[in-house]
DNA sequence: CGCAAGCGCGTATGTCATACGCACAGATCT
DNA sequence: AGATCTGTGCGTATGACATACGCGCTTGCG
């Protein structure tokens, strides 16, 4: 069996990520395997945050000894890389048929859902994505530009701009929705805290926007979730307006 | 001496951050103080990254014992909060005279410089800002809207949108400019890695944009710094185009 | 049937944040 | 001046954590 040598010289993480997983081995039938480990790790991080994910606790959950994990994962950083690649799952199918704006909107909302389900992804100061899981999302997003006149060179920057916004906005949303004071939660009601600390003489512009009801819900009937979602879509439209201007220049 | 009771009931961090620092005390003249500690901590984080900042190493640099630090800082999280508040320094003076677009542009570029100088700020999964240092920047940014018709309620979301973009873009820029393979650095040349891993059959849209030279410098004469800066300003203009549309609706 | 590859895991090491309490300095009070 | 009390610097100890190393076992292959 000649192995695919396309991935020579790459860091071990990338090799494991991009290679076909299955091959028959010696040794005992695996009680443990990479999928089980990564899945359990994601469950812990989802439930209790990234800080609660230790190799010891992970082993505990899997009913094995701590050091057994290291047969399948070189170190914790590698584990995190695997988690990042697996957690987002399959991206939505985007085609150019519905128009670029609808495609990017659906893509953004789907990605926001991923981040809300796995907020720990946002804590990982991940640089640019190199794993198949995340690149599949990039691929899906790029397909929205299919029918447009936007030059290919300018497409990824636009998608990255969206990505930055989605990550930033969702990070704050996730912190806001978490129980106050808890891990990653805000210290009580953010608007109330600001209203106490911000004095009009020192921060006039800030005081003005607070006074105008920036953190006051438009109606008590609107849940924080809905409010944050509406706020997200509004900012998204702002960005897409800018993209529309760019497209106007291009075509 | 009656202390200002405006800050009762707030978390200790906020109280220390917002109170006047000076008051005469008992005990020996302080060899150590909060400013010295935070300044040294920022220096370590600037030079070697957040991971290299341990209480032991910080004490070492200050020529004191590890536990001495805890007389001035409740714990490491509090230290990080102080660092976040002090590191950005004074924001630029923005007034509405030059127009909102120029004001926001200058603000964004100045903030980008802060993040390039202190990349560790981006690693701190900080939620919304509550310290005077960061709020001073928010205040400065909001002043750019002074002469516009944008309703006060809609100003902070726009500023947050800019903030997300600045943070995201600069985080990748900082990682790109770091020595490859080092702490926080990319695994070699990102474009080259992607070109090897991305097969057109599996990632056609991604392959197309790579083929179109997304990661190829327009000219060898352009340094990576300049290229990233130009890319930053381009994305910024995109966002501000969207804000202009919004302003068109408002006024 | 032997053998070695691959596996699970016990033990040990080094790093880290931090609780606790001692001893001392010096300002305040008598 | 002397007693007192508050705040400081710090030595020691603890417990969490990632992880190096090496032992014994299992099992598919020759």
Question: What is the topological layout?
Answer:
The structure is a homodimer of 251-residue chains.
Chain A: H1 12-18, H2 34-48, H3 55-62, H4 76-86, H5 100-117, H6 120-123, H7 132-142, H8 155-177, H9 190-197, H10 204-211, H11 224-250
Helix pairs in contact in A: 2-3, 2-4, 5-8, 5-11, 8-11
Chain A binds a DNA duplex (30 and 30 nucleotides) through loops.
Note down, in words, how this protein is organized.
Two copies of one chain form a homodimer. Helix content of chain A is 56%, strand content 0%. By secondary structure, chain A is an all-alpha fold. Chain A has two domains: 5-86, Homeodomain-like (Arc Repressor Mutant, subunit A); 96-188 and 219-250, Tetracycline Repressor, domain 2, CATH 1.10.357. In chain A, helix 2 packs across helix 3 (55-62). Residues 1-5 of chain A have low confidence and may be disordered. Chains A and B meet through helix 7, helix 8, helix 9, helix 10 and helix 11 of A and helix 7, helix 8, helix 9, helix 10 and helix 11 of B. Chain A binds a DNA duplex (30 and 30 nucleotides) through loops. Chains A, B: Residues 54-73 bind DNA. Chains A, B: It comes from Sphaerisporangium rufum.
